[in-house]
Amino acid sequence: MDRGTGEGLKTPKAARLPKYLTLTEVIKRKVDAGERAILDFYDPRIEEVRERIRDMQEELRELEAERDQSLDSLRQANARPLYTDDMCQICWMGPASESLPCSHSMCSECRHKLTSCPWDRRPLL
Ligand SMILES: [Zn+2]
Ligand SMILES: [Zn+2]
């Protein structure tokens, strides 16, 4: 690094800023900017506002966790094959491993919920 001219210390603006901001990053920046703006005008209410900011940040973390959970389940759903011949045709989640006496089949989870065959209405035990 060239400390003589100071040129080496400069980081180009484009390199410092990420090209794309996520919604979370935008909200974080807004919260940070809001906090800085408040600090410029000291007021006894500042503690109240800080508490509100902490609440918002807590809320943001909860939303992030919720979002991550939703994304995880979406990824899991995407990873499953959309259609195969042996899939349960009721929920499309698992293999149709259970066969009824009427020869219709479904996954074991759907089988446990049924009291009659959904196709021909024959009562099940
Ligand atoms: Zn099923
Ligand atoms: Zn049936």
What keyword list fits this structure?
2 strands; 125 residues; single chain; 2 domains; binds zinc ion; mainly alpha; two-stranded antiparallel ribbon; Herpes Virus-1; disordered N terminus
What does this structure look like?
- By secondary structure, the protein is mainly alpha-helical.
- It folds into two domains: 11-79, no CATH class; 83-125, Zinc/RING finger domain, C3HC4 (zinc finger) (Herpes Virus-1), CATH 3.30.40.10.
- The protein contains four helices and two strands.
- Helix 2 (23-39) packs antiparallel against helix 3.
- The longest helix has 34 residues, at 46-79.
- Residues 1-6 have low confidence and may be disordered.
- One zinc ion binds next to loops.
